Amino acid sequence: MMLIGVDPHKSTHTATAVEPDRNREVASIRIDATLEDYRRLLTWAAQWPHRQWAIENAEGLGRHLASWLLARGEEVVDVPSTATARVRQLSRGGGRKNDRVDAAAAACVAALQGDARPLEPEGVADVLALLDERRTNLAQARVRAVNQLHALLRALLAGGASRDLSATKAAALLRSIRPVGQAERIRKELAWDLVAEVRSLDTKLKANAKAMAELVTESASNLTSTPGIGPVTAARIIGRTRTPSRFPSAAAFASYAGVAPIEIASADRARHRLSRSGDRQLNSALHTVAITQIRMPGSLGNTYYKNKIAQGKTPREAQRCLKRRLADHIWRTMIKDERHRNPTGPGGHSGATLTSTAADPTPTVDSSDKSLPRPATADTTTCTTAP
């Protein structure tokens, strides 16, 4: 097995082949960051049939090259920049930095230090992330178009249009308007353009939602069995999470989503504050699920929310507690889905092991709250990987 370390930059990449058993540099090449030179790099590497690519910062400057290699069946690992810097400091040369040294250091780290992380080709989660980003942009464009349409209709009609304005309603109002003067005529023409734009955006949003639903079904996700999680929300959660097993516990996932409270120092008693960090899009999805369940009488989320209110929590505090418990449930559900799709786990290792299940739509609720998942400090759900 030949290790090929890559030090990526914005305009150029340097690759160095290293024999891992003897830690000896064999060859090196420098290419431009172009598709033509990507092919030249792959042709150069073909002299070693058994090879592995170790790309420094593969989630940053090396992301495009890593994705390109993975799509062509290459084995790629990500090496953090901190690991290569540590190798340079411990090697001869006083920690001097250049592209060739960095590339060789990345390969050495991947082979000897165990700091490399295997990468996988883009899958359904990546596609859902792209569709979710596109949906966000389409929704924002629709809001802008509707706002502009409202402004024009206020100038054409006394009192303007109702707040729940749609393309159909706007078209009916415009047909009743008989413009007088050039200004009113131009306003009406612009309004018709905006109506056509809103209709086009509505069509694209429907097609986007349909594509999301098909991919969520294809992924065999059980998230949609949870009340309040439809295909669009499930697509956002899957797309933002990507690989749930990268979180060692439900508490880690909750912290990533920004729903885990942060303890702050206090002289009289322990206090917590709301986390302002984490993935805000994922946090928004959890908020949507929590609000939906709160508005569903008889649901487990509604019962849990009412129990928290009865314990003296404010509505906002009870809502935050529900979001935290929903994060636990969603993580467990995704871990189970991932285990069913890939029983052996990435790289042939055993998959995640759960000590509790996610059979219920939300954590079971009773009057004593004893059957709810415990807070992060007492979370017994673990995700382990066998050696």
From TrEMBL:
Stretches assigned to the Transposase IS110-like N-terminal domain: 4-155
Residue ranges constituting the Transposase IS116/IS110/IS902 C-terminal domain according to the UniProt record: 221-305
InterPro entries, alphabetized: Transp_IS110-like_N, Transpos_IS110, Transposase_20
Source species, domain of life: Bacteria
Pfam families: DEDD_Tnp_IS110, Transposase_20
PANTHER family: TRANSPOSASE FOR INSERTION SEQUENCE ELEMENT IS1111A, TRANSPOSASE FOR INSERTION SEQUENCE ELEMENT IS1547
Protein name per the record: IS110 family transposase
Organism: Actinomadura fulvescens
